[in-house]
């Protein structure tokens, strides 16, 4: 790409904003288009945990468990039964990805992307003097049952094998450190290398920094069409019919990327993993470090004057319908694990759509068959954690440099339905 050619980024979530920042600081002409307000998608209200080296969703043996969860509305992962060929296809890829071999591959790739992201976080925070309640204290997974703790120890071992620190805390050590927990917890694992933050403050600060470096951003600007001439993308058309020209297009539109990619014949199968948050007034004795209630899969993150409860994964399509019972489940979990949560003054509630691929890895790379289109999405439950590294990869590749890590297994073409896959590609899926 020539240096003076404009790059259009579609999507003002954390991925698009990090890409805009990295490109702008390299002197590129960047225009980011966002259909609503910057940061109004999944990036707005996530749990704020920067979970470095964390395992992917597909794991050996999980496919069967998911089938049981499908019919249980109180499970952490809920899939209302419905006939949807795309959902069935997604689940089939997920089922095939729940192997030990695939899990190892995903762990390696996510660990590399996590390390890269961590380095980028540190650089961006320092270079731009960003203040966003960024705490380098790790995050904790807390257990109420011995069986849960045993599973947690196993998972901590996997994370350690990939080069990260994970410290086991006995019940006494946990309560000594975090008196906010109820007496009947059995222990915790502290993931020391990780961090937590206020995700929207972080995103806004990076967006401002990108603008200081010269990036332009347009809100309320919905892209309706990707304009291709010959075999190359030359720009986009907005819902209002305006043509915006550009030399390269970065598609970072979260869950909406599937629909936009389809417009140019590219297959990026994803499902929206709806999650919720409920912000409650900070209790008198509050957690000092972001924690996940392991048996309930609910996160609790202290932020300024509140405690954010976040969690659940619900595959119910692309919509913002909130199910009261699932919000209440998070409050109930908080009461079970934490003291002083009987009266929770609710400040706000929200839901967002995680862009979930079925095979455990994001989609990062040049689009096949159409020149000038780069796709970056599918970070599922880890988009905040992995966005800065993704932005760095995008910027390097668009500037004609080598990607800073092996990104071949995150390529866009892996989902292509047209070509027959080789045996190696099937293993990699
Ligand atoms: C409850 C919950 C908790 C989570 N907790 C964590 C966590 O602790 N740590 C973590 O790492 N991750 C977490 N995640 C996941 C994380 O939030 C996502 O992976 C991440 O936000 C995805 O970022 P994104 O930029 O790809 O997508 P989004 O943030 O969804 O951004 C995509 C943007 O594209 C815009 N867009 C779409 N279509 C168009 C169009 N046609 N034209 C213009 N703009 C368009 C949308 O409006 C949107 O703003 C959580 C998610 C949820 C829901």
Residue stretches low in confidence (pLDDT < 50, at least 5 long) are: 420-429
Bound molecules: flavin-adenine dinucleotide
Main structural class: alpha/beta
Give the end-to-end Cα distance, rounded to a whole number of Å.
31 Å
Main beta sheet: strand number and arrangement? 9 strands, mixed
Topology diagram in text:
Elements: E1 7-10, H1 14-25, E2 30-33, E3 49-50, H2 62-69, E4 77-78, H3 85-97, H4 100-127, E5 139-143, H5 146-161, E6 167-170, H6 171-177, E7 187-191, E8 195-196, H7 199-212, E9 216-218, E10 223-229, E11 232-238, E12 243-245, E13 248-251, H8 257-262, E14 271-281, E15 291-293, E16 298-303, E17 306-314, H9 324-337, E18 346-356, E19 363-366, E20 373-377, H10 383-398, H11 423-428
Parallel strand pairs: 1-2, 1-13, 2-9, 4-17, 5-15, 13-20
Antiparallel strand pairs: 3-8, 5-7, 6-7, 10-11, 11-12, 14-17, 14-18, 15-16, 16-17, 19-20
The structure holds flavin-adenine dinucleotide (FAD).
